[in-house]
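Quick start: load a record and inspect it. Here is Cleavage and polyadenylation specificity factor subunit 2:
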Amino acid sequence: MGTSVQVTPLCGVYNENPLSYLVSIDGFNFLIDCGWNDLFDPSLLQPLSRVASSIDAVLLSHSDTLHLGALPYAMKQFGLSAPVYSTEPVYRLGLLTMYDQYLSRKQVSEFDLFTLDDIDSAFQNVTRLTYSQNYHLSGKGEGIVIAPHVAGHLLGGTVWKITKDGEDIIYAVDFNRRKEKHLNGTVLESFVRPAVLITDAYNALNNQPPKPQRERDRDFVDTISKTLETGGNVLLPVDTAGRVLELLLVLEEHWTLKSLNYPIFFLTYVSSSTIDYVKSFLEWMSDAIAKSFETSRDNAFLLKHVTLLISKNELDKVPDGPKVVLASMASLEAGFSHDLFVEWAADVRNLVLFTERGQFGTLARMLQADPPPKAVKVIMSRRVPLVGEELIAYEEEQNRLKKEEALKASLIKEEESKASHVPDINSSDPMDIDSNNKHPSLDGLGQHGSKYRDIMIDGFVPPSTSVAPMFPFYDNTSDWDDFGEVINPDDYVSKDEDMDPAAMHVGGDMNGKLDEGSASLILDTTPSKVISNELTVQVKSSLIYMDYEGRSDGRSVKSILAHVAPLKLVLVHGSAEATEHLKQHCLKHVCPHVYAPQIEETIDVTSDLCAYKEQLSEKLMSNVLFKKLGDYEIAWVDAEVGKTENDMLSLLPISAPAPPHKSVVVGDLKMADFKQFLASKGVKVEFAGGALRCGEYVTLRKVGSSSQKGGGSGTQQIIIEGPLCEDYYKIRDYLYSQFYLL
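Running the structure step on this input writes:
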């Protein structure tokens, strides 16, 4: 049997719900992505709750809520405790995304699904990998290798490659073939004929016009400029630290080019922290950004035209006038974008510019599906400090609770003290002495007795008892316990007024501080309450959708899948219509084994190939001659299959003499490199008609393809043409020297 592979969707099939999938490889359970959406509906996570305790490892592909938003809740409520793997940007920006989600909701509701501590706890043990890094699992996962590769959708976004016994399982969702300002395109096309490919159908029905990126960016900024020129404001609902990075670079470049003075604001609870971290992730970005930094030390995210804000109060202080605000959340369900939409929607001069499809069931999706003019009902909530009788009642309740806690703690302490100091009258331990009894030897000290009660003195005469004490004992429970001085925890509690919010480290292993304002919000213990009211908003502003999602469209997806040509294909995450459409296409043009499972439906995609594990016997290996090939060593082996004493299949030396075999040439010759090699040997050489002309008579041609359709390495031949002369044999020897012969 081949490597056993089972796939079970936990969320995100036949719809656009969050992504979460259970992939079992030879009994080792991977949870690939652990997403939630901006509605934070716990019912979506029920399938995850049933398998969380059996998860052996978690792989995260992207840093947004749809791919990792449920991680803190699952670890807190479901007992998910498996190690987590991601790239560094997915870890850092994912953490900031969850902070922004929590703070956005805590300011307008009694949000209790998870806390900042839960977020820190979930992310504190994430193992961060670099692109193309092979990470070998141990223990139960022995023999499994995982490696992240470029996805191209978000910074640090990952196509996961899982390898076991030479078979590849590829998880590639939300990938993007197109190179953008801050990201390179995906490397998915570099994988050929994997055993299993798990991919999404999200964009299967979305075919974008073949428009160059420069033209697309020009349309984007022209749309914004027209609104600003007419005196309107532009609101871009964005994610916390994902696609917004591309938008910032597009705006920054255009403002610099046109010398525009309209202010641009990036408004989230963690905007400053986001940009600070992004500045240090240049090696994860596009080749153009990395090259620019190497040559001129120019960091693309030293934004000169964008002001970073972390509270709406800062924005309210900005003078009136046209402005551009990029504010989270993209769904308009919460955060600053929700409040700004309510304020600006009634003005016909304003523009709400959506750059991604809203999540299903959210305000953004509703507005995109049914554009204005229209009236929408929204809930406006805000947190206000308690005053008057409410504050008095709150303080009285807190005092009552503190007294109850203090009394309870005192009773517990007293019980513990009694339990640890009451003598055991049945004990025969010679060290146990009743401290209430007077000892004759001490009474005999006369007036000096009180001075020397608690020390041993010369001439001490033990009492006439069967067992003499070694040390005197006196009860001193008011100040000491069995191990030394009693510690009062209250002495070590810092008062709120002594705490400096700006100096508080928040964010667990963030190696830095959050914005001072964000830290103040976290540490704010002022008694408060949430007040809400329903408003009817007359939407008169313009609403426009322009695709900046950073995903490959339907045509591109089909082309990539045909090139990769997996042996088995599993489709997830997409509407029912899109999933069925892509399934039928792939059955005809990609591979005969295409699956689209339902929630909690387990499908077996084990390879049809027969594979066996065999041990190389010591007797065989002792006579093998290896040749160095770069970082590896290779050898030709003639052997026969047998069984060892423990009945394991083993390769043993053949009993008869080894049959002759044709020479095997190992290596990959690049004609350009060989041209330089011949020139260094004094041979006159040049390219002519796709062939290499060597000297006066000999020509080398390379025929065949190293990446032929259908997979494998294809066939390659190098043909030497020319008369049998001295030059012919000399060049042939030079050619053979570039290979390894077995």
